[in-house]
Amino acid sequence: MASSTAQDDTIGSSRRVLVTGATGYVGSHLVPALLDAGHTVLAASRSGTSAFPWDGDVETREFDVEDEELIDRAVEGVDVVIYLIHSMASSDFERRDREAATRVAAACERAGVDRIVYLSGLVPDGELSPHLRSRHEVEQIFLESAVPTVVLRASMIIGAGSTSYELLRRLSERLPIFTPVPSWMRSLIQPIAIEDVTRIMQRAVASPETINRAFDVGGEDVLTYFELLQLFARVAGLLRVQVSVPGLPQEVVGESSAIISGMPRNEVNNLIESLRHDMVCEDYDVRDALLEPDYDYLPIGDGLRRALGQEDESRTP
To answer: For residue 223, which of 4, 21, 204, 227 is within the disulfide window of CB 3.0 to 4.6 Å?
Structure first.
């Protein structure tokens, strides 16, 4: 990966950055990266940040996307708001995400926030799953607001603690040697390491340009989900033989995956449904707009190795 200098990290002036979802997976990795780049970080949380090593370096602001007064107080005096909130675990997450984004966008307009950075998901062709449809709807709310918004449409994020990665890991470790894989999981996927995601978001915060658009974000490797399972097994040293099984209904796969992984049913079912699509980048404009010219993405095999090596130390409290 390309080396970074202090000048690279602060291509714009130091900003006051509110990170919503700061105690979540991406947020907890992003906060220290922003601090290292010289920004003042305000960590928005409902539960507090005392369990995190960076707690003493940030200002914590109470935050709840259903409370307009708390949102107004949280965004006051802020230059950039990073939006990392999704309600995928609830049955009515589409409505909740839509209403939350509308409240936050309006509060940012009232407070004179300079920029919103939203981590979304890739938008494939065809009919979208509810999970992808909701993320696309949220990004449109922000892009149509009066606040310039950088939308980063990320593919599967590889890193210990990422929901997609944890589902991949748990299924790989808990299924038998001969692992049944639905034949419809031959769609393409373009995973990206958490280190690359935080780097792009850091640059989106610091960029001096006024940007109001969406960027596709994915690593260099494009493979099928079938191949990703095989790669994970090799990296993890697991003896696994993936067997393609035709005719497995998506609902059965989702429910059984939730049981085996021990993860919330709604989250797992929505992720499984998304695997019917090719989740690959349609453009690579993010390189020219935000990244250093010589920046190299982490190969996905290396990303998996890092994730496996960091599992114990990186799990959020």
So the answer is: 227
Task: Give the N- to C-terminal CA distance of the chain in Å, as an integer.
Answer: 29
Q: Where are the strands (E) in the chain, listed by range?
A: 16-20, 40-45, 59-62, 80-83, 115-121, 149-154, 157-158, 178-182, 188-189, 192-193, 213-217, 223-224, 241-245
**Local structure of 35: helix, strand or coil:** helix
Compute, in degrees rounded to 10, the torsion defined by CA atoms 273, 278, 282, 288. Answer: 80
The one-letter code for the residue type at 267 is E
- Cα distance between residue 76 and residue 65, in whole Å: 15
Would you say residue 153 has pLDDT above 80?
yes
Dihedral angle computed from the Cα positions of residues 117, 9, 39 and 193, in that order, rounded to the nearest 10 degrees: 50
Distance of CA 136 to CAs 3, 14, 155, Å? Answer: 33, 30, 13
- Tens-place pLDDT, residues 233-256: 999 999 888 888 887 888 888 899
DSSP letters along 176-200, please? -SEEEEETTTT-EE--EEHHHHHHH
Model pTM score: 0.89
Token output for 41: 């970080």
Contact 133, 162 (CB under 8 A): no
Q: What is the mean pLDDT of the chain?
A: 88
Q: Within its chain, how far is the Cα of 211 from the centroid?
A: 20
Chain center to CA of 18: 17
If we measure between CA atoms, which residue out of 187, 175, 157 comes closest to residue 236?
175
**Half-sphere exposure (Cβ direction) of 118: Cα atoms closer than 13 Å:** 30
Beta bridge partners of 265: none
Alpha carbon distance 176, 285 (integer Å) = 41
Q: What is the pLDDT of residue 151?
A: 98
Q: What are the structure tokens assigned to 231, written together?
A: 């790669």
